[in-house]
């Protein structure tokens, strides 16, 4: 069977979030991304490039991903027979970086592979569960009181694990307030690289709050200082930004820079790279969990399939659709079960169908390449 790529269409979209989302690198009220539509031999595959409008999380933006996809990635696969994700990765070897752009295309290829073979992504990956444990990532709030209120709403709606975004000045007292209000909840924090080693002592009170983990306290390209940070803390350090390939995961493991890894397949360069990182961590008895990038239903379906793998031991940042969007671009909406889980899609490919009217209404630019 062949899988000749006939056309690639890029949909640069912007969707209003149900509530603003603030991290140490900025505040978003709209979420931008690029939806990738690939036609091949009578089938349509969909993918999501999670680059956002500014380079706060990653150097890639929707603005850099559009020409990278058009001028460099698409020409390497158009009219070609793409056998599988590894064959796609081999073709990308000459393009340095741009993982978010590559990952969006790889996702669409997986969707096509699944649809062609009548298998869900979970089946293709060898997933071990039909539902995955999830939590909610709570943006920075103006005061500890406001944060406790916001967390209370999420706990009431059923989230059994809460992640708090922190930044200098809005860290220890904010986290202490939530811990005091919820003595038993599974709680963790994410700094998105807002600190340096000089701040480690001021963050030390976090070590008394029984947190699951402290995510990416230091620079986005650092591994070694995270080793020094981890040595000072009992709470496990979890790396997000710093792990940009399975190779970086190995560096972090060998350097003892973290005890947990946040897997975002996009940051690693694609779902295949996420799976490799999962397998490597598993060999070293290091738990992983699935991070999120405020995905649409397309990327959410992909994350759920990935998180069905056995070493995704901690709950993922894969919340229900209504936590992000009033109207999504997939007909399917993901709902939170009473046990703080979300069902893994089980239809062929990603297992979602596109609401073309919604997609059109959010589109800023559409570019067909063939
Ligand atoms: O660091 O995990 C992060 C969103 C955008 C960029 C970076 C991060 C996040 C989140 C959101 O935490 C997680 C979600 O999709 O719910
Ligand atoms: Mg993070």
Description:
- With 370 residues, the protein is α/β, with parallel strands linked by helices.
- It has two domains: 3-118 and 353-369, Enolase-like, N-terminal domain (Enolase-like, domain 1), CATH 3.30.390; 123-343, TIM Barrel (Alpha-Beta Barrel), CATH 3.20.20.120.
- 34% of the residues lie in helices and 21% in strands.
- The protein is built from 13 helices and 13 strands.
- The strands form three sheets. A seven-stranded parallel beta sheet has the order 5-6-7-8-9-10-11. It has a four-stranded antiparallel beta sheet with strand order 3-2-1-13. Strands 4-12 form a two-stranded antiparallel sheet.
- A hairpin with a 2-residue loop joins strand 2 (26-40) and strand 3.
- Helix 5 crosses helix 6 (172-181) and helix 9 packs parallel to helix 11.
- 51% of the residues are buried.
- The model has no long low-confidence stretch (mean pLDDT 98).
- The site of 2-succinylbenzoate has 11 residues, from loops.
Write the layout of secondary structure elements.
Elements: E1 7-23, E2 26-40, E3 43-49, H1 62-77, H2 85-91, H3 99-117, H4 121-125, E4 131-133, E5 136-138, H5 144-156, E6 161-165, H6 172-181, E7 186-190, H7 200-203, E8 214-215, H8 224-232, E9 237-239, H9 246-254, E10 260-263, H10 265-268, H11 271-283, E11 288-290, H12 297-306, E12 341-343, H13 356-362, E13 363-369
Parallel strand pairs: 5-6, 6-7, 7-8, 8-9, 9-10, 10-11
Antiparallel strand pairs: 1-2, 1-13, 2-3, 4-12
The structure holds 2-succinylbenzoate and magnesium ion.
